[in-house]
Amino acid sequence: MPKNKSHSGIRKRVRITGKGKLRREMAGTRHNLEKKPSTLTRRLAGTTEVAPADVRRVKKLLGR
């Protein structure tokens, strides 16, 4: 039986921490940043945790 492959799109978008939590980047930080207020761009900087409702689905796509 072949090995299961992890979902390549999710693999690029989500990082797993040492404790097993899922981290992702905030949406809305790729383009059109000139129009957005600097307070918004600062707030969207960095990573955040994946929503609890999505954790099970994302882990399944990652093959965990």
Automatic annotation (TrEMBL):
GO MF annotation list: structural constituent of ribosome
Sequence intervals crossing the membrane: none
Pfam families: Ribosomal_L35p (PF01632)
GO terms, biological process: translation
GO cellular component: cytosolic large ribosomal subunit
Gene3D superfamilies: 4.10.410.60
Keywords for this protein: Ribonucleoprotein, Ribosomal protein
InterPro entries assigned: Ribosomal_bL35, Ribosomal_bL35-like, Ribosomal_bL35_CS, Ribosomal_bL35_sf
Protein family per UniProt: Belongs to the bacterial ribosomal protein bL35 family.
Name used for this protein in its record: Large ribosomal subunit protein bL35
Protein's organism: Herbihabitans rhizosphaerae
Gene: rpmI
